[in-house]
Amino acid sequence: MQDNQFDLTGKVAVVTGASRGLGQYLGRALARAGADLVITSRKLGDLTPFKEEIEALGRRALPLELDLRDEASIRAMAPKAIKHYGKIDVLVNNAGCNVRKPAVDITWEDWNLVLDTNLRGSFFVAQAFAPHMIANGYGRVINIGSVTSVFGYAGIGPYCASRGGIKQLTMSLADEWGVHGITVNCLAPGWFKTKQNAVLYENPEWVEYLKDRIPLKRPGQPNDLNGAIVFLASDASAYITGQTLLVDGGISTGAIRATTAKK
């Protein structure tokens, strides 16, 4: 057993949706822990700045095009990643999208966009890498959920459905692939500011409302995810599978005061 179980030197990790936001937070943490990366986006050119950033850290980064709503795109991406490095040790299913509307205004197309991307896409990306990991007898699959994997929020019904599905999918794949030495876990961030939700943070009243509900009294910062993603990608989590790890500042406790006094 290696002295530092959190060391990812020699490991190769795929991070989907790495052109912005959480995907870049997670990719940086894995690279700093020693991993080389495969980074994906729908538009290959969007990955150039992040590729250069990872290489400046002394790690390798292979940018690949990936559209989670296109089966052929998924089927083409996985072999390219495997061929380039010779192996894939870690998959971070991060790419996703959201539609913010009242439930009565959600269209058929809205529903399909979110569920096809967040849930169906994540499944088929995992499926594409599974035979390789099974053959190697090793793998770390990390599905990115959210606090909505366990909580419901108004105005984002399809998103909540997709993230709840990710939690259940994680448990199913963990049960099926554990015999092959593959762990499957869900990393569920709470409220982190990203390009996807940045408009919400422009409202000071909403930010104060959010902070009041979080026991740690602040939204998440990029570095708050570093330890969790490295842990789940590393040998330190070898006996953990099928779990959902919430990194949410405690908002999933319910965060509703039972008294009128603020602490």
From TrEMBL:
It comes from Acidisarcina polymorpha. One of its GO terms (molecular function) is oxidoreductase activity, acting on the CH-OH group of donors, NAD or NADP as acceptor. Belongs to the short-chain dehydrogenases/reductases (SDR) family. InterPro entries: KR_dom, NAD(P)-bd_dom_sf, SDR_fam. Residues 11-191 form the Ketoreductase domain. It comes from the Bacteria. This is 3-oxoacyl-[acyl-carrier protein] reductase. It holds the Pfam family adh_short_C2.
